[in-house]
Amino acid sequence: MSRFITFEGIDGAGKSSHIDALSQWLREHGQRVVSTREPGGTPLAEKLRELFLHDEMDALTETLLVFAARRDHLRACIEPALAAGATVLCDRFTDATFAYQGGGRGFDWSVLGSMEHWVHEGRQPDLTLWFDVDPVIAAQRRAAARVPDRLERLDVAFFERVRAGYARRCAEHPERFARIDAAGDVGAVWQQVRQQVNRRGWW
Ligand SMILES: Nc1ncnc2c1ncn2[C@@H]1O[C@H](COP(=O)(O)OP(=O)(O)O)[C@@H](O)[C@H]1O
Ligand SMILES: [Mg+2]
């Protein structure tokens, strides 16, 4: 049965690592899986991603760009995949816009809610795994792993605001949010991901 699962959290929290792990686990259990990411996931949205990650812009432009990319992603990738019975695993989705542009940049929360309403047309994730970790730990992981992009270069105070944005979304949508304590080692985090999936009895 098709499910839409989103992976959220600040840069370095462990989202990508666990999308790969859950994708493999689901395939081993006979599920068709589509792994995708935001911004991105379609040819058009990937072009918008390049602009988003590397060009300086204000918070409104950033928000419009990411919702434009999301619109294409929903229409051309996510909705068709769900209609075909696949499980869609998405590395970041609209909660990230609330956390980064709303929490991090201070953009108006209710305007984001209006854009969400227009762009989603009722679609929401069935489960959102929020990888919650101290920004200092996340920064140490990123520094060890890769060259930072435009947003990853922002300071710990920014990521504290992003984290608070995620906490607010989690409190507003408890029916689909699952908080994962992402500070532990990879094995401990994976156990929590498995638990959250298993307890829903979907597969
Ligand atoms: N629980 C963990 N403990 C230690 N290192 C981790 C953990 N999870 C991921 N990492 C490492 O931290 C880095 C960032 O992880 P990644 O999955 O890319 O995070 P994200 O996609 O959230 O930015 C990678 O090098 C990854 O191997
Ligand atoms: Mg990642």
Descriptive overview:
The chain has 203 residues and is an alpha/beta fold. It has one domain (4-199): Rossmann fold (3-Layer(aba) Sandwich). 57% of the residues lie in helices and 13% in strands. It has 8 helices and 5 strands, in the order E-H-E-H-H-E-H-H-E-H-H-E-H. The protein has a 5-stranded parallel sheet with strand order 2-3-1-4-5, with helices on both faces. Helix 3 (59-83) packs parallel to helix 5. The chain is globular and about 45 Å long. The protein starts with a strand and ends with a helix. It binds adenosine-5'-diphosphate and magnesium ion (MG). Magnesium ion binds next to helix 1.
The total of helices stands at 8
Mean pLDDT: 96
Radius of gyration of CA atoms, rounded to a whole number: 16 Å
Euclidean distance between termini CA atoms = 8 Å
User: What are the secondary-structure elements, in order, as H or E?
Assistant: EHEHHEHHEHHEH
Query: What fold name goes in the CATH topology slot?
Result: Rossmann fold
State the fourth-level CATH superfamily: P-loop containing nucleotide triphosphate hydrolases
Q: What percent of residues adopt helix (DSSP H or I)?
A: 55-70%
Strand order of the largest sheet: 2-3-1-4-5
Say how many strands there are: 5
Descriptive labels:
203 residues; alpha/beta; Rossmann fold; 8 helices; 57% helix; binds adenosine-5'-diphosphate; binds magnesium ion
